[in-house]
Design a protein that fits this description.
Blueprint: E1 2-3, E2 6-7, E3 10-14, H1 35-40, H2 55-64, H3 68-71, H4 80-87, H5 94-100, E4 104-109, H6 139-143, H7 152-167, H8 172-175, H9 178-181, E5 189-192, H10 200-220, E6 226-231, E7 239-242, H11 243-246
Parallel strand pairs: 3-6, 4-6, 5-7
Antiparallel strand pairs: 1-2
Length: about 270
């Protein structure tokens, strides 16, 4: 961790539900703007596997350094506050270890896949916000989604699904519960004719760049090093992103995976 006698600054980027589908892994059809370039300048691991096939549970392993049978997190329910109580005062998360060793720690986006964990950061964790022009009746549905829906067609689908649920006998109170909201989602994919920072990942990138600008200037002055964790939702349903990225591809030329079968004995 030392370079010329000084501790390195660390930018930790995390996403999930992607798989080996980038150009750096041999998929020439995918056109990521920056990942392939980053891979060409990095050490690339070709045989890495998550310890548990669920977002929150897998991230609990990464940020605690413990196996699933130790964390016992097998859902996406809030985890770290109660786990801290269980583990006692000697427990530290990955960013917290850096903080305890002289680093300034910052986080933005989808990192822990959990409620906030104040001991990990030197300032409140930064989360993306819904766009200002989201209709009032759509805010609760978007707040429960890893990425917001912003198109009018998406809003129409959500409202139609709400009406169908009401016809089926559910009250609005029932619909606005977590289980009810899962039945009144927007489409699985959306191409918004909007700027990057209308969606959560674009906002996260903007905030990360501001962090880097501010804290790198401080570091050049000889201040303490930083650990910046940046988490993206890109691979997670719903697959919502600006239209300009969808326009990079011809739908007619896209090929589905050859193996679409459920693994045996699962």
């Amino acid at each position: 961790m030392l370079k010329n006698g000084k501790k390195n600054n660390i930018l930790f980027i995390i996403t999930h539900d992607i798989g080996k589908r980038y150009g750096c892994y041999g998929n020439s059809r995918i056109k990521p703007p920056n990942i392939d370039k980053l891979a060409s300048e990095s050490i690339q691991f070709n045989n890495h596997f998550c310890q548990f096939p669920l977002c929150g549970a897998s991230r609990a392993n990464i940020f605690s350094g413990l196996r699933p049978l130790k964390t016992e997190r097998f859902t996406n329910d809030p985890f770290f506050p109660n786990f801290r109580k269980k583990m006692g005062e000697n427990f530290s998360t990955l960013p917290e270890i850096f903080k305890n060793h002289g680093y300034r720690t910052f986080g933005a986006g989808l990192v822990f896949h959990d409620v906030d964990d104040p001991p990990s950061w030197i300032e409140p964790f930064w989360r993306s916000k819904l766009p200002d022009n989201i209709p009032e009746d759509m805010k609760i549905h978007n707040s429960e989604s890893p990425n917001p829906w912003v198109n009018n067609e998406s809003f129409k689908l959500i409202r139609r699904r709400i009406k169908n649920l009401e016809k089926a006998g559910l009250s609005m109170e029932d619909i606005l519960t977590p289980s009810g909201l899962r039945k009144a989602k927007g489409p699985t994919a959306e191409a918004g004719n909007v700027d990057d920072n209308v969606y959560f990942d674009g906002q996260t990138t903007d905030r990360a760049l501001r962090y880097l600008k501010d804290i790198t200037i401080d570091s050049l002055k000889g201040d303490t090093p930083f650990f910046l964790a940046v988490g993206y939702t890109a691979g997670n349903l719903p697959w919502n992103s600006p239209k300009k990225y969808w326009d990079l591809y011809s739908r007619d030329l896209l090929k589905l995976p050859e193996n679409n079968r459920v693994p045996a004995n699962t």
